């Protein structure tokens, strides 16, 4: 004990700095542990889904699935919910026009209540053989479905007539 007191008297500043450093290190380690454990214990959606139990949708999704399955234009359907987004994956006949797809999907919105339409976002992913997917999205804050069609044309070499230039230029 006398050696410790003698060491403290000879190195007082260093001892005080070491004690402060250890306290700071302990505070930093504790705060990091608390930060990471709170991140792990929370839902990946945070508090955004706290009121989702007030908006049940399972019965309506079963009606939607039977609606699509009863249509002769639809070959397959799967419906998934992730958070507040309803994903509707459809497989339709290749000859089905975009307007027909839009009307089928727009009519399907009648199966959901107005409260559900304003709470959930709805994503339509329509697949056709040999064609790119036809995508539709209805935000909870909107009343209409926004459609996006990704058509990729193959590159072709343009002639001078298509460009608008003369081939006799110097």
What does this structure look like?
By secondary structure, the protein is of the alpha+beta class. The chain has 2 domains: 40 residues; 97 residues, GMP Synthetase, Chain A, domain 3. 42% of the residues lie in helices and 20% in strands. The chain is built from 6 helices and 5 strands, in the order H-H-H-E-E-H-H-E-E-E-H. The chain has a 5-stranded mixed beta sheet with strand order 1-2-3-4-5, covered by helices on one side. A hairpin with a 2-residue loop joins strand 1 and strand 2. The chain starts with a helix and ends in a 7-residue tail after the last helix. The mean pLDDT is 84.
Q: What is the radius of gyration?
A: 32 Å
Indicate the overall shape: elongated
CATH architecture classification of the largest domain: 2-Layer Sandwich
Mean pLDDT: 84
The percent range for helix content is 40-55%
Could you say how many structural domains there are in total?
Answer: 2
């Amino acid at each position: 004990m006398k050696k410790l007191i003698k060491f403290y008297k000879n190195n007082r500043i260093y001892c005080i700095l070491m004690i402060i450093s250890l306290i700071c290190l302990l505070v930093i380690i504790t705060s990091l542990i608390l930060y990471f454990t709170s991140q792990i214990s929370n839902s990946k959606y945070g508090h955004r889904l706290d009121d989702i139990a007030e908006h049940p949708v399972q019965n309506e999704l079963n009606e939607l699935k039977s609606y699509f399955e009863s249509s002769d234009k639809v070959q397959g359907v799967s419906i998934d919910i992730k958070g507040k987004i309803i994903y509707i994956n459809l497989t339709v006949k290749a000859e089905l026009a975009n307007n027909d797809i839009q009307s089928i999907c727009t009519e399907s919105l009648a199966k959901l209540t107005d409260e559900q339409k304003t709470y959930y976002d709805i994503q339509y992913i329509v697949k056709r053989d040999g064609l790119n997917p036809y995508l539709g999205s209805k935000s909870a804050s909107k009343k209409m479905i926004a459609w996006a069609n990704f058509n990729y044309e193959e590159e072709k070499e343009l002639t001078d007539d298509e460009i608008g230039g003369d081939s006799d230029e110097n």
